[in-house]
Please model this.
Amino acid sequence: MTRGLGRPPLVLLVPAGIALTLLLVPLVSLLVVTPWARLPELVASEEVLDALRLTGLASLSTVVVCLLIGTPLAWVLARVEFRGRSVARALVTVPLVLPPVVAGVALVSALGRSGVVGSVLRDATGVVIPYTTPAVVIAHTFVAMPFYVLSVEGALRASGERYDAVAATLGATRWTTFRRVTLPLAMPGVVAGAVLAWARSLGEFGATVTFAGNYQGITQTMPSLIYQTLQNDRETAQTLSIILLGVSIGVLALLRNRWLNAGGTTGAGA
Amino acid sequence: MNRRLAVLAPATLLVATLAACGGGDDGGSGGSADSGGGDTVLRVQAAASLTDAFDQIAEEFEAQNEGVSVEATYDSSGTLAEQAADQAPGDVLATADENSMQTAVDGDAIASGPEVFATNTLVVVVPAGNPAGIESFEDLDGDDVTYVACVDTAPCGAIAQTLIDDAGFTNEPASLEPDVRATLERVVADEADAGLVYTTDAMSASGDVETIEIPGAEDDPTSYPIGVLEQSEDAEAAQAFVDLVLSDYGQGVLSDAGFGSP
Model:
């Protein structure tokens, strides 16, 4: 690849090395200092199993919600001309740059017991959203969906409208076109977006603890458990971090082999 | 190939943003009060709940000792103790519980002390107007009562857990908040019917919450120890500050803020 272009210049290689070091040193350090002998005992503890179960449930639910409502939003942003479309697209990116704690405070203001929507809901039906597992999924969806929508919208724009137009001339309705033509073409973006949303959900802490709360088995995810453990037991927190790191890398590796490559090939061939 | 790149480009960009959106601020209230204008700087590291009282004591200390300025940093006790044990620069350390102070002692960071200078007890706080009609600590054990406490890894949570266990409650807290300020905030915002916080926190938010004493809470107080740090460059001034905290003046300031005497 580089033959004929000359040696890569140091002015690029040195900063690249610094960047790689910055990313790797903390992770390697975590691997080095973790008291591995305590891992089996910790993984088997009820508190950790509850947190792992809840983290898995919440992150998968978040991905499902993104697929169900994020995909249509991405399609509308990419394919439908309407006033304020650029404003809508800008709004989608806001949670992306928002500090998670601020997202939590915003969710409390809206859906908390005394929130704008939450107080109406509570008076009308007696339903209270905070302190429940659905509250965790709502918080995760709020912070993860922008990743999904932008990824899918990018894929939809990149694949272009030509195939949609051809399908329409062949008599397909817009819904059929969406299902049979548009969506399959955008599949690499859908998969990449789902993975990003899932990863964001897996690590979500600030919005969850601020909005949903923290209680074992109901709202306590792995990051919340790690944070509270860190307050008085750094070693256990390190070991718990390793579990989460292992789960993340494991699933990403699995997806990479199973989906990302296959998806990428489809995208390139289309 | 171009199309594939175009598809994956936004995803790559997003991966980059992931890093920036990692953890949230944990709400640790780091802050510093620097009155400036002195030759010697005395660095006091204290638990967040001491903020108001220690600011006042620091002012008095500067008035008594010309040429010395106090630079106070307030954070969670665990964090400050860990930093002290790691030899972070500082002269005086005051924590909100003895376990945290023990971390600093074990790290050979305490030159003199530690000595307990104040205590704090738990109370029940309810939102202004008491919408859920909580009259006593026992009322928290009602099925439809939503109350919050600190996680049991924090000093305030450990005491709360003891009180709840001793009372034999069947109604568990709706949420265990990371620290006492977050617990108080749930009640101030009317997101919970009641919360278990320190007396001093209840007093600091007296306009927004109503306080209900817990019978027997004085049997489970948390103790605030203070000590001079090994890494202090002016141990004499540091000891003078500790003495002022332990003096009648210092004890008066702490008492006004709601702390108990040791």
Q: What stands out?
A: Residues 15 and 143 of chain B are 45 Å apart (CA to CA). The longest helix of chain B spans residues 2-20.
